[in-house]
Amino acid sequence: MDTMEILSKKLIDFKFPKNKTRENVLKDGDVSYEGFVSGYVKTRFRGINNCGYNFSLKKNKKGCDECYELGKKLGEELIPDPDFKFSSIQFNKNYKMKKHVDKNNVGKSYIIGLGDYEGGELLVYFDGKDHPPTKIDIKNKFYTFNGNKYWHEIADFTGNRISLVYYNIIKDGDRTKEKYIEYMKTFEYVVCISSKDNYKNIEKECLDVLLEEIDSEKIFIFVENMEEFKKYKKEISKDKYNQIVIGNRKDKNGIDLMNKFFIIDINKVIVDEKLFHLDSDSGSGSPCKVSLAGILGVSPV
């Protein structure tokens, strides 16, 4: 069997997860449909701004990933435009989506229908959403259009209908997680600051000492929320810091993002509550400088 036959059979037999997030395609009264996306998705850390990364690879169950690999192979074999690059593939099964646009897509997409269905043409409203649509047969063949620009929906069908939409959501200037990790590798030190327990609330005096001791081009400052961002950006002169990024350092499962994504296996130092312990009874000068001395390997002043 060729790739299309193998993928068609696998998708018909595969138990799709329920997708509850694509509210723009759900018919009135529906709360989910059978579908999933693989590839890059927009990352939604609580509060992270455009200094961080915007996109990361979606984590799906094993069966979804196998479908994605076959889907990529099918696209590489049959999409006629060699210059077309896709970041993601949306898989949809046996659902008649309502009229919608794909607002996050960048440029044109390619779509193909697989399965043993009848009907189910792609309806594209090239002349506006309130004008008659153009009916396009996509069964076992690719078709390209701009789903961000043109309203579209699915015609009635019978049988098993699976559609694969190949699209791009990454714009010029956007950072994927992989690119962001590479970017983090250019810094020698990372400072994590916040008023909450999972960070260390570094006072301005101590941060000034840190910035005096270390070349500002080697420092990356990571704060938890907008309040902290405004506080430190206002207090630190622009020639003393390189980047300030907003973001919750711990994810919903309590995993430390700095260790998980940015620092592990990288020869760097995290300046946090463990390393930035201020011992006022040390008797060795400024507690800030005593602490920094141990971190930087220099003698306290």
* Low-pLDDT sequence parts: 46-51, 195-201, 261-285, 287-301
Tally of separate helices? 7
Give the class from helix and strand content and strand pairing.
alpha+beta
| Share of helix, binned | 10-25%
Mean of pLDDT: 76
Notable traits:
single chain; four-stranded parallel beta sheet; alpha+beta; 7 helices; seven-stranded antiparallel beta sheet; disordered C terminus
How would you characterize the overall build of this protein?
Strand 14 (219-223), helix 5 (226-235) and strand 15 (243-246) form a beta-alpha-beta unit. The strands form 4 sheets. Strands 1, 2, 3, 4, 5, 9 and 12 form a 7-stranded antiparallel sheet that branches. Mean pLDDT is 76; it is low at 46-51, 195-201, 261-285 and 287-301. Helix 1 runs antiparallel to helix 2 (62-78) and helix 4 (204-213) packs parallel to helix 7 (287-296). This protein has helices spanning 3-13, 62-78, 177-184, 204-213, 226-235, 257-263, 287-296; strands at 18-19, 33-42, 55-57, 88-93, 109-114, 118-119, 122-125, 134-136, 143-145, 151-154, 157-158, 162-167, 189-193, 219-223, 243-246, 269-271. With 301 residues, the chain is of the alpha+beta class. The chain has 7 helices and 16 strands. The termini are far apart.
